[in-house]
TrEMBL record:
Organism encoding this protein: Polioptila caerulea
GO annotation terms (biological process): execution phase of apoptosis
PANTHER family, sorted: APOPTOSIS-INDUCING FACTOR 1 (PTHR43557), APOPTOSIS-INDUCING FACTOR 3 (PTHR43557:SF8)
Function: Induces apoptosis through a caspase dependent pathway. Reduces mitochondrial membrane potential.
Name under which the protein is recorded: Apoptosis-inducing factor 3
Gene Ontology CC terms: mitochondrion
Source taxonomy: Eukaryota, Metazoa, Chordata, Craniata, Vertebrata
Cellular localisation: Mitochondrion
Domain Rieske: 60-155
Domain of life of the source: Eukaryota
Single annotated GO MF: metal ion binding
InterPro entries reported in the protein's UniProt record: FAD-oxidoreductase/Apoptosis (IPR050446), FAD/NAD-bd_sf (IPR036188), FAD/NAD-binding_dom (IPR023753), FAD/NAD-linked_Rdtase_dimer_sf (IPR016156), Reductase_C (IPR028202), Rieske_2Fe-2S (IPR017941), Rieske_2Fe-2S_sf (IPR036922)
Keywords associated with the record: 2Fe-2S, Apoptosis, Electron transport, FAD, Flavoprotein, Iron, Iron-sulfur, Metal-binding, Mitochondrion, Oxidoreductase, Transport
Family: Belongs to the FAD-dependent oxidoreductase family.
Length: 596
């Protein structure tokens, strides 16, 4: 039996890519020195169609059809690139072998229910189409056609697809952008983070061809915000989620440095801080959160930072080099900043109110293991205390005074003590906001106002995993999914959110992965060795596993995420069996209930 994989593109989709309903690039709107300006960039596809040129095609023999059993995956090398060959339910499929998000090898991921889940950050891709089905990330995988002939297995693929390992889904364009009034749009998206961008892209992918406007207080186009604390010296263009040309090609307008001050839901008008007004038909509010500041004396002096923008992160790195740094708050941001600066700064001190970092999130035992790792990397902790004063010398930060009486030398102070939802401008709008300031939405990301949706860190929504309890999940992956669900329901698809929260943190070259929602857990079952930092922790509530975290135990978190996504329950007594079957044997049949 022979297997061939051939890259093809349907004639229907090929014609879509070649057509431009608009015929020209849309304007990308920037706010420059208080003036709105239009920049028309030369229109061209982000990636040209790789199937027009026969010379771009490569064919190579890879394996025998009997080399793969059902439920197995294999990376196959075509000389100029690799593909992922998959066999499930007796059928072969072939897609790109790297996750388009950060390049994780998908062969080490989880194959289940017709999709493969990334082992690093949990993104999911349909094995039949390559389409992304869960996040993070924006692009899908290239798909290669599989043919079975005789006894050899061949793959025939585009060299470009093999090299890029990503595919942007087909998108519509705005039909007649030049006819629109600048102060009117069909869809207005407030916020240009992951939720806002995915919403805009999903609308275009679903064929929406009316006007879309995104607005943001930031001066940059949407960027990879988690890298602000994980890779602090990255420049904005290095962490941009899409290049400028993308927004022009697909007619997604972006208003930068524009803050919405109020929303009139009766008139469907957004009022900006500078007085500009924009009428909308559908509205997405994805404003994220605002970092909390210190309340002590000296909080506004120079060299005290909240990490909110690339410029903030870059400046902290520059000022911290060979200097004394104090970080207030052992949050994800605070711990990641401490880890990043450990080898660059002269000293790094971390101040935290709790007695163990991450206690509420990872539990005390895991928190202590992480704390020990930081202490082994020269991070000094000052626990169960707060900052009482910031002292200056010649206008610059000199010392951080703690309530315990300790005085720390400090040239730079980074504050990571939490955040509040950026929803203050909605207080008089009539949009339902809870006592903590979060926008309340249903499973379709709809607010109490028809045509108004909300997504991302600023919302509470019903989480199916926790019996539809209203929760706030401020994770990068979840913001992506919120944006997609909101877009689909703007188009009246009636799609409800059903996803498992997934997050990660990276410190000192090690990653901690986490899936589920462990709020209120009452026990932690740990497998592995905390001292060796090779472990998996199961968080339980009333005997049911509600979340899992791991370090150096891939892909256990992605496997458990797939179990939870399938609607199955893991009991505390099942943890040993889960680890044995999923990690030591690699058997995933228990996921669908077919195994014992």
């Amino acid at each position: 039996v022979e297997v061939k994989i051939e890259v093809v593109i349907p004639e229907k989709e090929r014609s879509k890519e070649e057509m431009s309903p608009n015929g020209k690039a849309s304007p990308l709107i920037y706010k420059v020195n208080g003036t709105a300006r239009h920049y028309h960039l030369e229109e061209h596809p982000i990636a040209s169609n790789p199937y027009h040129n026969p010379k771009d095609v490569v064919e190579a023999s890879v394996c025998h059809v009997k080399d793969l059993e059902n439920g197995q995956m294999r990376e196959v090398d075509l000389g100029c690139g690799k593909a992922l060959l998959i066999k499930e339910s007796g059928e072969f499929h072939a897609v790109g072998h790297k996750c388009p998000h950060y390049g994780a090898p998908l062969v080490k991921g989880v194959l289940s229910r017709g999709r493969v889940r990334c082992p690093w950050h949990g993104a999911c891709f349909n094995i039949g189409t390559g389409d992304i089905e869960d996040f993070p990330g924006l692009d899908s995988l290239p798909r290669f056609q599989v043919k079975i002939e005789k006894e050899k297995v061949y793959i025939r693929a585009s060299k470009q697809a093999l090299q890029t390992q990503r595919r942007t889904k087909m998108m519509a364009k705005c039909i007649s952008l030049s006819n629109y009034n600048l102060s009117s749009t069909n869809v207005l998206i407030i916020g240009a983070g992951a939720a806002g961008l995915v919403c805009a892209e999903t609308l275009r992918q679903e064929g929406f061809s009316d006007r879309i406007v995104m607005c943001t207080m930031d001066r940059h186009l949407p960027y990879d915000r988690p890298k602000l604390s994980k890779s602090m010296d990255s420049h904005p263009e290095q962490i941009a989620l899409r290049p400028k040309e993308f927004f022009c090609t697909y007619d997604i307008e972006v208003l930068t440095e524009m803050q919405v001050a109020a929303v009139d839901i009766k008139s469907k008008i957004a009022v900006f801080k500078d007085g500009f007004k924009m009428e909308y038909n559908k509205l997405l509010i994805a404003t994220g959160n605002t970092p909390k500041t210190l309340s002590c004396k000296g909080k506004e002096m120079e060299n005290v930072f909240n990490i909110r923008t690339p410029e903030d992160a870059n400046r902290v790195v520059k000022l911290a080099t060979s200097k004394n740094v104090v970080i207030v708050g052992a949050s994800f941001l605070g711990m990641e900043v401490a880890a990043y600066l450990a080898e660059r700064a002269h000293s790094v001190s971390l101040v935290e109110l709790e007695h163990v970092p991450f206690k509420k999130f990872f539990g005390e035992r895991v928190g202590r293991a992480i704390m020990k790792m930081f202490e082994n990397n020269r991070i000094k902790f000052y626990m169960q205390t707060e900052v009482s004063e910031l002292r200056e010398q010649e206008g610059k930060l000199k010392e951080v005074v703690l309530k315990s009486g300790k005085v720390l030398r400090a040239d730079v102070c980074v504050v990571g003590v939490g955040a509040v939802p950026a929803t203050g401008f909605l207080k008089q709008s009539g949009i339902n906001i809870d006592s903590k300031g979060f926008i309340v939405v249903n499973k379709m990301m709809q607010t109490n106002i028809p045509g108004v949706f909300a997504a991302g860190d600023a919302v509470t929504f019903p989480l199916a995993l926790r019996n539809n309890k209203k929760v706030n999940v401020p994770h990068w992956q979840m913001a992506h999914m919120h944006g997609r669900i909101a877009a689909l329901n703007m188009l009246a698809h009636g799609t409800e959110i059903s996803t498992v929260p997934y997050l990660w943190t990276a410190v000192f070259g090690k990653s901690i992965r986490y899936a589920g929602h462990g709020e209120g857990f009452d026990d932690v079952v740990i497998q592995g060795d905390l001292d060796e930092l090779k472990f998996v922790a199961f968080y339980t509530k009333s005997d049911e596993v509600v979340a899992v975290a791991s370090m150096n135990y891939d892909p256990i978190v992605s496997k458990v995420a797939e179990v939870l996504a399938a609607g199955r329950t893991i009991r505390k007594r099942d943890v040993d069996v889960v680890v044995f079957l999923s990690f030591r044997t690699g058997d995933m049949s228990w996921l669908t209930g077919k195994g014992s």
